[in-house]
Amino acid sequence: MPLSSQTIQAAVCTRHGAPADVMTVEQRPMPVPGPGQVLVRMLAAPINPSDVLFIKGNYGIGPQPPTVPGFEGVGIVESGGGFLGWLRRGNRVAVLSPDGGTWGGYCVTKAQTVIPLPPSLTDEQGASFFINPATALMLTQWVFPVPMGNWIIQSAAASSLGRMVIRLGQHFKFRTINVVRRQEHVDELKALGADAVIVADEQTPIEEFNVQVDHITMCARPKFAIDPVGGKTGELLFNALGSGGRMRVFASLSEQPIPVHPRKMIVKNLGIESFWLGRSMEALSLPQKIKFVRQLSELHTKGVFQVEDFKTFPLSETVTALEVASSATGGTKVILTTK
Known about the structure:
This is enoyl-[acyl-carrier-protein] reductase. By secondary structure, the chain is of the alpha/beta class. It folds into two domains: 3-128 and 307-337, Quinone Oxidoreductase, Chain A, domain 1; 133-278, Rossmann fold (3-Layer(aba) Sandwich). It has twelve helices and 15 strands.
């Protein structure tokens, strides 16, 4: 039977809005690979914050609904690959799909965005091989090459990505100040290797926050900050930077703007810039991309990007999985499975 006449089960975003209102699971036509593309039988795919933003219509890029969400996952090569000899049928691979589609039984994507996986990684680990680990690595070693012994301050430090930054600090010998909202995460993150943890939220005064940062750093303020929250939390991090410091904003979990006074930027020579993983990857040359992916794979095998806890759901329970993902705390990662 030709591929074009087959159907697959998939989670579908029917329109932008609240996930419970717009997500459904249905039969869809089997995707057919074109030139330079590969067809992958999906095994598992994570629910990342970017997926939720896409469903709500706040992500900024991606196909228009109705469409199958999911920007990454793990699966088995079924066909395609062209001249890329490592993409043989039956190979288990990590899938990066900028146009979505991994929340289904099969996915088509560019052959260059499919990465062979080490046998040591489980399907759950392989499903989250790229987006969070690559963001953490790119921010701390490529966009912001944080020198050994230097401080970087991050918000949402108890998230899966935040924990990866802590482990990267241990591996590359830079020091981390980790901002969390709950006291319960302090000892947990210190046990993971965090150099310092600050409990703060939107009500925390800037002066009080800065006193804590000065105590931790002995008044040698950090020159690097990364923030996925925005709003008042982003303001706290920005104001804690030392002269010449830079902050990269890579998400907007609070959906609030960051209040920044231009005089402070001018006097202290501070900068705030955006970060989008896809854009940074596109800016790399082919040799740089190969080097980056190799480094990513090596760090995976060393356990730097280990996720402590997975919660798995079949595709048929996508709405429930999205509800769990929205309330998940700490290093929990929610995974959709198609096996």
